[in-house]
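My main concern about presentation is that the manuscript never shows what a single data entry looks like. An entry of this sort, consisting of the sequence and the corresponding backbone structure tokens, reads as follows:
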Amino acid sequence: MAVNTYKTIIIGAGISGLGCAHKLLENNYDNFRIISSDIGGRILESKSKDVEYGAYYIMSIYHNTASFVKRGRRIKPTNLIFHKNNHTYGIFDKKIFTHFFQLIKLIFILRKFKKYYESFKTNCLYSSQINCLKSDAYLWKLYNSNADSFVKEKQIKEIVYDYLAEALHGTAFMPIKSLNAFEFLHFSLPLIAPVYEFNFKKQEAINLVKTHWIKDKVMEIKNKNRKYYILTKNKKIICCENIVVATPPIISKKLLKFKQPLREPASAHMFHLSGKIKNDWNKGEANLFDDKNRMLAIAHQRDNSYLFYTKEEKPDFKRYFLNYKIIRYKYWNPAFNIGGSNLVEFKQGKNLYLIGDNNICGLEDSYIYGMYAANKILGKTID
């Protein structure tokens, strides 16, 4: 059987793998291939290209991913409706005024975090995520602190559990008590940074890598005589010196057989629906539910369809809709690994690198991790 040989192989063409490929190409590094059955990874779109099913929003501070995403509608806090203990309220409910001083304190906490986070992202281009976290005492402490304990320590419990808890439940698919303080603040940044829906520029991504793309699936990696040999689903054997694994954490762990535990997985059933929603659920652009609820979120889309996220495999749609039609269903299991503070090393062997959202979730961070892997191969890192 013929063996194709390349200097570098990227496994996975999600946002992290694309970040790696983009950076290599920017530096005229051509001796690589990216292996994936599709382009975009967990970024899935409706057939109309109007609705994103996986990653759903970007923040104004996501500068690096701009090559592959186009901003859509701004998601305004004033258009969010919260549901807690049979109480429905908007952002300007009396709760916000009762907790006004906690809100001011939370904003100052987020502004401080944002400053450190921006520096962290810059540093992550040339040093691994773990090294960047450990070298910053403030961020390192946050990463190893429980979010619920952090909220209580900072005395912002009421404002967080009346507003942010619902927002996080609808985006992270987990209660605050399962998150570390870094991710809690990270996912809370939309409170102070404009946030937008987006469209994935899939065709631009395909055009970028099309001459380097092997449309296939990696089944096994073997190390022999200081070379790596990759066996694909289509029975191809590919030899290389460097491997960058950019697959979802659960796939990466099976592929690399590493022993480090992954963070706790978050799962959700997603339904894309068309139809007429009941008036009780039609008061804002998105309905968000407290973390004791099996419901996660109902988001009105610009084409007048709805994204419906729940922990239930067979939800009672008639409770929410007068009539409906399921356009598409997807069980995200897991959607991502986000609970706890486990860290997975970047270097998994000689010239064998693991990127993605193993340690920090988010499009921007995953893309930067891909850029760092490319810089590692190019000899431009400081670690």
Observations:
- The chain has a mean pLDDT of 96.
- The radius of gyration is 21 Å.
